Amino acid sequence: MIPQVRPDTIFALSSGHGRAGIAVVRLSGPLAGQALIDLTGSIPPARHAALRMLRGADGSVIDEAMVLFFAEPNSVTGEDVAELHVHGSTAVVERLFGELGIKPGFRFAEAGEFTHRAFANRKLDLVEVEGLVDLLSATGEAQRKLAMRQFLGEASEVYNAWRLAVISALSLFEASIDFSDEDDVAVKAQNAAWPRIRNLVSELEAALVQSEKFGAIRSGLRVVIAGAPNVGKSSLLNILAGREAAIVSPVAGTTRDVVESHLQMAGLPIVLADTAGLRDASGDAIEDEGMARAKAAAGSADILIWVVAPDVSSQVGPPRAPDLIVENKADLELIRNRNESAIAVSTRTGVGIDDLYRALQKLAEQKTSGAEQAVVVRQRHILAVRKSIRLLNNCLAQPQRAMELTTEDLRQTARVLSSITGHVDVEDLLGNIFSEFCIGK
Ligand SMILES: Nc1nc2c(ncn2[C@@H]2O[C@H](COP(=O)(O)OP(=O)(O)O)[C@@H](O)[C@H]2O)c(=O)[nH]1
Ligand SMILES: [Mg+2]
Hints:
Elements: E1 9-13, E2 20-28, H1 32-40, E3 50-55, E4 61-70, E5 81-88, H2 90-101, E6 106-108, H3 113-120, H4 126-137, H5 141-151, H6 154-178, H7 183-219, E7 221-227, H8 233-241, E8 259-265, E9 268-274, H9 285-299, E10 303-308, E11 324-327, E12 343-344, H10 353-368, H11 379-397, H12 403-421, H13 426-437
Parallel strand pairs: 1-6, 7-9, 7-10, 10-11, 11-12
Antiparallel strand pairs: 1-2, 2-5, 3-4, 4-5, 8-9
Helix pairs in contact: 4-5, 6-7, 6-12, 6-13, 7-11, 11-12
Bound molecules: guanosine-5'-diphosphate and magnesium ion.
């Protein structure tokens, strides 16, 4: 037996920095209980809040605090954990750190160390850790929901189910090898295995499609405003963004680069982009470059808003079918052919802006609907799922090859899938399932 090194007891401020009503100092490690004895005289019953006087080694009062104790393994890190809810002043927290820092066996936690210990003690798997990271940085409802799904282990359950599907197919092929002298048993086992692999490939592919929608939640849905010069694109950006982000002027060709503004709409992060007006080549190299950028932005937009105005006769049409057509300058009351599907607005009077906002919100929701259910959300997951699909398709493409080659590919697929959550040992699981399968042999 290798002797286990006793980990340090770590501590850190777990709440925000600076002046606040309450600051929470958290400790994790074998001496967390000892710290409570040193500071308050006793350890309160586990998971029960207690009001205690905190005292320094010299007996002087540091603060009155609410303290909590969680005995291992029933804590966030899996170790003994203590929480000190002190008054949220820098001075109190500093004094506490001073007291704790000089005790042998204690040290300040490194970045992410509490979570790292939680992972090491199997309180969280890798996907849950990533979910926690996303949750802590979530700025809107959609991001929060998605992060919660990862953090609460719902996404991990899906990965585990996929892994089990691979293992069940694998055990069938293993059986067909073991029973290869009994022809019909071998054939039956293989016949049962192939459809499982095909189903899994479709599930993995569907998950990748869904993950593309998720990109919009993570980095923001790209809404691009395009149209001819002077129709009021920059004015529209400003009114939607609620600030003067883009320059508005009667001079055609004022906007030359893509101007972006970030906002939240229905809990979704939106990147709203204003672009250079599109017309026939201007002869001005900078404006032409601006138009090229505008076309590229419009082409890659999640939502394209095409703006027209009655006082501007447009020479060019939208670079692709727009999601919304906006007729601006409704206040001008010029006679024109109304486009039934267009939304009439005036950035000058504010008419129609609410309608546009609602239409935009509805489109944004449509474009991201179901994205909160996404499982494959990070590049790391995407690469692993793609690799799994490749391996499985490799099996499907060669049904006649030696079974040992197929089982090797499946084993590797199971390893790739379990690397996503980072916890389960494939061979262990296979041992279990296989031993069940082979009962009576
Ligand atoms: N009458 C009227 N003029 C507008 C309206 N919106 C913008 N304009 C004017 O149209 C001109 C071009 O506006 P701008 O936002 O710079 O258009 P862009 O070139 O498409 O970005 C400016 O003189 C604006 O004041 C509107 O709703 N009504
Ligand atoms: Mg402009």
